[in-house]
Write a structure and sequence with these properties.
Elements (H helix, E strand, L loop, with lengths): L13 E4 L5 H11 L5 E4 L1 H4 L4 H10 L3 E8 L3 H11 L6 E4 L3 H9 L5 E5 L7 H6 L6 H15 L3 E3 L2 H11 L4 E4 L18 H6 L4 E4 L1 H4 L4 H17 L1
Parallel strand pairs: 1-2, 1-8, 2-3, 3-4, 4-5, 5-6, 6-7, 7-8
Helix pairs in contact: 4-5, 5-7, 7-8
Length: 238
Amino acid sequence: MGEISRAIPSRERLIAALDVPTAAAARQLVEKLGGSVSHYKIGLELSTSGDYDELLDWLVKRGNRVFCDLKLYDIPETVRRAVANLRGRGVNFLTVHGNRAIMEAAAQEKGEIKILAVTVLTSLDKRDLEEMGYRGEVGQLVLERARAALAAGCDGVIASGLEASGIKAKYGERLLVVAPGIRPAGGDAADQKRTVDVAQAFRNGADFIVVGRPIRDAKNLAAAAEAIQATIAEVFSS
């Protein structure tokens, strides 16, 4: 079990993933969620829609927190310049991928943005990593990448709730842990392989969770989000 950090307002800990094809669809989803969510992730799918910047500005003007999940991965100078372009735009979180030089380049230009390093995607398991040439355990690779992220000046990592406890045990509050791959207890994992439910993610030490399909595909989006918020509030009140 990880140590639960209580400094973050509990209703900001839920990040709803706007994994939809267009900015118009994303705005519709946000409006349906109303006050049930204040923190949104805009990622790869929307980055190719042609309206990413417009959507980012719209969310910021509404007073929402914005997580740009772009997983920047390129030569360090290109990553540095890309991060510099996002400074002053109201972005809260930005993801990067790659080695220490890439992460350092992102951290160099981050300004007010919190840089989150991707450890191991939650859609990957040990067999997938072996196909990619890594023969060790998933948890060990996650810890190695968390160590590198901290040394490079990153503010946190993207990691499964399964590994959150190990990261917090080793690095405590020095690294934020943002956990995707969240699924309701007994729910369909779909293409995710290393999943936990909402309560377990936070009890393991996650600071934030990212939830996509369990909210996006619900019959009542706001009710689904509020149910998650109630679970979060219960964890942090105990």
